[in-house]
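Weekly sync, protein design subgroup
Attendees: M.S., D.O., the rotation student, P.L. (late)

Item 1: inverse folding check
M.S. brought a backbone from last month's batch and wanted to see whether the design step gives back something sensible before we order anything. D.O. pointed out we never logged the input encoding, so this time it goes straight into the notes. Structure tokens as presented (212 positions):
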């Protein structure tokens, strides 16, 4: 069973960019209720199954049970649908990462990080593309990750970078960073004033760049 769950998660990760937009009456597998049918619905149902939920509304294959086979059914369904109207989730994902980071900072009385520096945001997007090929704080050209700031004309006194891959949602990636002491230290660094976030769906690569 564990091997099957791991296999499903791997396929969901690979298929996470596949999204179809339908009218309400056409939605068959919108498990998470976001108005789209995509691999995230399979992941939502998989989490329900592994947590013991057994609402028969989610018996997608009609066998009388709610289990990982229903998550697999949803995944097969959404992968097989046409994807002519595929929305770009990058902006929403990046904004949600900022919101979650600032919510965590608020718990500790820290000022919210501003995300309105277009050059910083561009630098983070470049880094998200780069770590898709070289997952490291060293850039593909062999230079330090922060050279991207100079290239984009970002002025700063201090900086930090968090990177991650394979997290499917903003909630997952921020939770992972918060559970790592080094990444958490960047998020809760009171000297930082701005944040840039980059997301690249090719492997679900995420970048945060902090500056002061």
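Designed sequence read out in the meeting:
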């Amino acid at each position: 069973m564990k091997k099957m769950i791991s296999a499903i998660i791997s396929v969901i990760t690979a298929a996470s960019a596949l999204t179809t937009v339908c009218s309400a009456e056409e939605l068959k597998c919108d498990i998470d209720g976001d108005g789209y049918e995509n691999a995230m619905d399979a992941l939502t149902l998989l989490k329900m199954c592994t947590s013991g939920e057994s609402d028969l509304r989610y018996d997608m294959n009609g066998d009388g049970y709610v289990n990982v086979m229903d998550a697999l059914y949803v995944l097969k369904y959404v992968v097989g649908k046409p994807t002519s109207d595929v929305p770009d989730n990058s902006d929403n994902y990046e904004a949600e990462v900022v919101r979650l980071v600032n919510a965590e900072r608020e718990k500790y009385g820290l000022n919210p990080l501003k995300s309105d520096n277009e050059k910083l945001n561009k630098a983070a997007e470049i880094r998200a593309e780069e770590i898709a090929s070289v997952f490291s704080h060293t850039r593909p050209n062999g230079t330090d990750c922060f050279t991207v700031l100079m290239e984009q004309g970002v002025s700063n006194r201090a900086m930090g970078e968090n990177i991650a891959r394979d997290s499917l949602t903003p909630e997952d990636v921020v939770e992972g960073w918060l559970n790592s002491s080094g990444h958490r230290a960047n998020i809760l660094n009171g000297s930082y004033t701005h944040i840039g976030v980059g997301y690249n769906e090719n492997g679900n690569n995420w970048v945060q760049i902090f500056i002061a």
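Discussion: Residues 14-25, 82-87 have pLDDT under 50 and may be disordered. The radius of gyration is 19 Å.
Action: P.L. to compare against the previous round before Friday.
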